[in-house]
Amino acid sequence: MSEWLHDKGFEVGISLLLALIPVFIWMTFFLKTNRDCAKTLIKVFLFGAVAVVPILLLQYMWLLYPQFDIYERIIQTESRFNLGFLATFTAIGVFQEMTKFDMLRRLSWINVKIETINEAIRYSLVVALGFAFTENLLTFSDVLASEQLGKLFYELSFRSIFTVAAQMVFSGILAYYYAIGKFGNPVLELDRWTGRRHRLFEWVQRYSGIKQKNVFQFQQSMEGLLIAMVLHAFFNFSLQMGHWDYAAGLVVCGFVFILFLSKKRTNYLVFTSKEKARPSQIGKAEENVVIELMGMWFNEGKFNEVIEICDRLMQRDPDNKVVKLFRAKAVDRKKIERVKKAIHLLFSEEDYDMEQEELSLFERFKRAQAKKKEVKA
Predict the structure, then answer these.
(1) pTM, to two decimals
(2) How far is CA 265 from CA 118, 179, 221, in A?
């Protein structure tokens, strides 16, 4: 057995096999729950697997030029142990999240196009899976080389469950913000109709000439990147300080949050199209008046009315992205309000007719008209 462990081919083979276990599980899940072809996901996975290379090159540079090694500088200059660890693992989280984010932005290099927010989240999860695969491969190789087989089981269970999941959670959250910024025009247009102003963007546009969409995209990307880096740093720091419960709680909450995001209707909308948009059958001025009314009703919580108007508008202007986004947002908000109402009713004696209360103004008018006809008859 000892001779086998010293064999480089055996070491690489076992490490590769162990590192592929979580990959097989997650890729099977992605292929079952999504319509992406296996070829696309494998390309994204391999693209993510090489994302570790810049970090390895950076570490190699630190070996050649120790004066640039920030880890050593932190250890030597930081007298407070906890703060030193925090700074060190914050740096690790920063480098890793920046690298994965850069890979997500450059998926076009492998002819993979992001058309929906959910696609951005899904591809980022696969990129993170590839990133974690390479990390695990190197870690398992080091453990086998040290002949510490007891530690190998620990590393396998820990890295397959916690590390892989954490990498995917952080990347998924970052991808959501990145995609919101990437498809900024419809989002900004909806915000304008609902009265939400972006004063910072307006100020930057006024004094710099940069388009508001570009400022919005940069702001959303940086916000997502900052959140991912902070969460990653907290995860690493919690593990180093022995707070496994904090790290596990972070991963579980993160996955629940990503699951919630992935079910939002807005995330399924296709914001890019190879085909030319079909012409609108309603005048621009008339349509704007209706959309302005939708914005007012949306702010007042009249989501059924918004949904019904959107359905009617899409019959006349089927490729209007703002109208589609309005409808998706209204459906998402309606679900949330329904949950809030259900929780409230659990702890009250109030009677509630779900069917009657959720009727739109139009539907109530139709029913009132029908009753009048019945009375006359």
Answers:
(1) 0.80
(2) 10, 14, 21
